[in-house]
Amino acid sequence: MSKKNNTAGILAGLLAGAAAGVVLGMLYAPEEGKETRKKIKNKAEDLKDQAKNKYGEVSEKVKGQYESISSTFKETANNVAHTVKDGYDKYKDQIVSKTTDMVKDVESGLNDLKN
User: Fold this and answer.
1) Which residues does 79 contact at the CB level (< 8 Å), separation at least 6?
2) pLDDT exceeds 70 at position 92
3) How far apart (Å, rounded) are the C-alpha atoms in residues 3 and 105?
4) Is the pLDDT of residue 34 over 90?
5) Among residues 85, 105, 107, 86, which one has the least CA distance to residue 97?
6) What pLDDT score was predicted for residue 74?
7) DSSP H helices in the chain
8) pLDDT at residue 81 greater than cutoff 60
9) Average pLDDT, the chain
10) What pLDDT band is residue 5 in, cutting at 50, 70 and 90?
11) What gap in Å lies between CA 27 and CA 102, rounded to an integer?
12) Is 31 helix (H, G, I), strand (E, B) or coil?
C-alpha cells in the first residue's frame, strides 16, 4: 500500500511542479495580460487532461496487479487447503488401520486368556 501512496505522491508532485513552472514562465513572459491568462487557462486544461490520463493508467495498472495478486493468493490458499486435506485423509486412514489392528490384537489376546 505504501508503494502505491509513494507513486501517487510522486505523480502529484511532478504535476504540481510542472504546473507551477508553466504558470511562472507565462507570468514572466513579455505578453499582454489577456493573452497570458488565456495561455495559462489552456495549459491548465492540458495539465488536467494529462493528470486524468495518468490517473487512468495508474488506476488500471493497480487494478491489474490487484487481480493478479488476488488470483495468486486464491490459488495458493486452494493448494494449501488441498495439501492439508490430503495429509489429514492419509493420516486418518493410517490411524484407523492401526486402531483396527490393535483391536484385533486385544481381542485375540482376550480369546487366548479365555481358553
Assistant:
1) none
2) yes
3) 64
4) no
5) 105
6) 92
7) 2-28, 33-114
8) yes
9) 83
10) low
11) 95
12) coil
Any domain includes 103: yes
* Residue 104 cell numbers, joined: 484385533
The answer as to whether 28 is a domain residue is no
**Could you tell me which of 16, 82, 89 has the C-alpha nearest to residue 51?**
16
Residue 91: inside a domain: yes
The Cα-based distances of 28 to 32, 36, 54, 64, 110 in angstroms read 11, 9, 29, 44, 108
CB-neighbour burial class of residue 11 (10 A; exposed 0-12, middle 13-18, buried 19+): middle
Give one DSSP letter per residue of 44-69, joined into a string: HHHHHHHHHHHHHHHHHHHHHHHHHH
The conformation of residue 1, written as its DSSP 8-state character, comes to: -
Q: List the domain range (segments joined by +) for residue 90.
A: 35-113
Radius of gyration of the chain, Cα coordinates, nearest whole angstrom: 36
Q: Cα(12)–Cα(16) distance, rounded to whole angstroms? A: 6
* Assigned domain for 23 exists: no
Closest CA to 22 of 7, 51, 42, 52: 42
Provide the domain count of the chain: 1
